[in-house]
Amino acid sequence: MKSTRESFGESLLDLGSRYENILVVSADLCGATKTKAFGQQYPDRFFECGIAESNAVSIASGLALSGYRPFFSTFGAFMEVATNQIANSICYNRAPVVLVGTHAGLAIGKDGATQMGTRDLAIMRAMQGLEIYQPADNVETKAIMEYLATSSNPAYLRLCRQPMLEVNKKNYKFIPGRTVTLRQGNDIAVYAQGGTVETALEAAKELEEQHKISTKVINVPSIHPFDGASVGKVARDFDKIVSIEDHRVIGGLGDMIASAIVENDGSASLTKIGLPKDFFGESGKPEDLYKKYGLDKKNLVDTVLRVLEA
Amino acid sequence: MKDKIKILEEKALHTRRLIIESLYRTQSGHPGPSLSVTDLVTSLFFDEMNFGEPTRNVIRHSKTGERPTFEPASTERDIFILSKGHAAPALYAALAVGDYIPERELINTLREVDSRLEGHPVRTALPEYIDFSTGALGQGLSGAIGYSLAAKLQGLDRRTYVIIGDGESQEGQIWEAAMSAATFAREGKLGHLLAITDYNQFQNDGASTRLLPREQLPKMWEAFGWNVIEADGHNYKNLLEAYEKAREVTDKPTMIIADTVKGKGVSFMENTMSWHAKAIGENDYKIAMSELGGME
């Protein structure tokens, strides 16, 4: 069990020794976003800008346009401070910066709504030419990081605070755009991402064992690029699809699946599980919040049973 | 020095003609701020900066949505960012005067569809010479800090130059950048960074002196830890001396506060807010061109 932010920090340190063009830009959250060890190992390649995200993002752009591959990390919730800088300094310049938004969704827990990244996917998906990835475990985080180290496209990496189960095999190969089927099934398909992937796998197991329902579980680590055609196929093979995401149901995974079904001649109905449209967040233990807002195994099992009965 | 200044003044005069000619043809744009910044841009491009030789291989730009392969900025020359991107015609005119782009391209295509010369500078449209896309105000100084940090890390002598506006200095990001640049300089991480404020006293809706009074501005930059030099932004002797003085200070970034005249060089555009952004009519065009010594 390891959080994807921790895996990111380890990977960054490792990649830093192999790729001298990797830099880190920080806005006073290097401890929480796990770039601190990189800063200690490579102080010359670490730029602490203080609590000034807009400046940090544009500085990262200038570094990138000089030939470097900077990683700028902060909470996903604070990445949006620099929305116009991400659009203009990074995307419009085509500056090869990796933006790393940690503490996705509810799992920051007791710190509450202002610290929760519940809008970040919607905002980042609106950015022209910005690749977007969210790993579901340690193996996937490291595979995505290997790709990011050698790519020269601007990217947003969405990471979680909470420890997560290993759901991918050791020989996992990351391909940008591709969805990843983690469990085969015949009765219903569930799309999940990041923190909800293990919920989906646990629910699928329970559905199989207790209800004889066979659930296909598909992880979506690559948000942009995104293989919409594969969703179209799933939406012809299955009558019912459920999506479950630790983000509001506006502009995130559920919306992506809905568009992809319509645009690729799918016929399945879609039920979205996610944070409500006008929801901010609240303090509480992550597991209590997941339960209250339906991102837990029980709600997914109940939803599948309800959807299949209908 | 005298001859040098005379040559620069001639180049500036021609730059101003190109600004008026191209803005008249395209019937939109920002004459006032392009003219106020002209002598700053001219003195940088044709004396202070090492901007390299023209590389006439260009037309690679594509607006079709295709992704161009990423190429970092040249390491062979200095970096220039026009953070007040609405003064783009002054930058394009300097590129034309320096033979980096054809004069005809500026006059015929400025602000038109498929042009490399958009209303505000676009890096990906002309990556050989435009180091940062600007127009959303407040971001260029931070971009320049990034370039300057990179130059130091790469061990390059290259210098980074950035021009910001007085109105633009109301953006909070300018002061985030001010704070961080001085800090990085103290820590030995910043390369040579020279910023210039084009203090032309006007912004879109009124006087820029309201929120940032002229006498207050140098104290603000000094308080943030910068080396501050004040100069007449239309006096070449003054400007070249300021650049020279800036080179002597290596432990701080330098801000030159340049007093300029909005619309400088065209009598009826000088010191008027209305020429911040306005299409030039035929009559005004003729008067302006005759004041600037005509066009061949």
Strand and helix layout:
The complex is a heterodimer of chains A (310) and B (296).
Chain A: H1 4-18, E1 22-26, H2 36-41, E2 46-48, H3 53-65, E3 69-75, H4 76-79, H5 83-92, E4 98-102, H6 120-125, E5 131-133, H7 138-150, E6 155-158, E7 180-183, E8 188-192, H8 197-211, E9 215-219, E10 222-224, H9 228-237, E11 240-248, H10 253-263, E12 269-275, H11 286-292, H12 297-309
Parallel strand pairs in A: 1-2, 1-3, 3-4, 4-6, 5-6, 8-9, 8-11, 11-12
Antiparallel strand pairs in A: 5-10, 7-9
Chain B: H1 2-26, H2 31-48, E1 79-82, H3 88-97, H4 103-109, H5 140-154, E2 160-165, H6 172-186, E3 193-199, E4 202-203, E5 206-207, H7 217-223, E6 227-232, H8 236-248, E7 254-259, H9 282-291
Parallel strand pairs in B: 1-2, 2-3, 3-7, 6-7
Antiparallel strand pairs in B: 4-5
Helix pairs in contact in B: 1-2, 1-3, 1-4, 1-9, 2-3, 2-8, 5-6
Main pleated-sheet profile of chain B: 5 strands, parallel
Q: What's the CATH class of chain B, please?
A: Alpha Beta
The secondary-structure element order of chain B is: HHEHHHEHEEEHEHEH
Number of strands of chain B: 7
The shape of chain B is globular
User: What CATH architecture of chain B do you see?
Assistant: 3-Layer(aba) Sandwich
Q: Would you write up a description of this structure?
A:
The complex is a heterodimer of chains A (about 300) and B (about 300). Chain A has about 300 residues and is an alpha/beta fold. Chain A has two domains: about 5-160, Rossmann fold, CATH 3.40.50; about 180-310, Rossmann fold. Helices cover about 40% and strands about 20% of the residues of chain A. In chain A, strands 2-1-3-4-6-5-10 form a seven-stranded mixed beta sheet, with helices on both faces. Chain A has a five-stranded mixed beta sheet with strand order 7-9-8-11-12, sandwiched between helices. In chain A, α1 (about 5-20) packs parallel to α7 (about 140-150) and α9 packs across α10 (about 255-265). The radius of gyration of chain A is 19 Å and the shape is globular. Chain A starts with a helix and ends with a helix. The model of chain A has no long low-confidence stretch (mean pLDDT about 95). Chain B is α/β, with parallel strands linked by helices and about 300 residues long. Chain B has a single domain, classed as Rossmann fold, CATH 3.40.50.970. Helices cover about 40% and strands about 10% of the residues of chain B. Chain B contains nine helices and seven strands; from the N terminus they run ααβαααβαβββαβαβα. In chain B, the strands form two sheets. Chain B has a five-stranded parallel beta sheet, with helices on both faces. In chain B, strands 4-5 form a two-stranded antiparallel sheet. In chain B, β4 (about 200-205) and β5 form a beta hairpin. In chain B, α1 runs antiparallel to α2 (about 30-50) and α2 (about 30-50) packs across α8 (about 235-250). Chain B is globular and about 55 Å long. The interface of A and B includes residues 47, 84, 87, 89 and 92 of A.
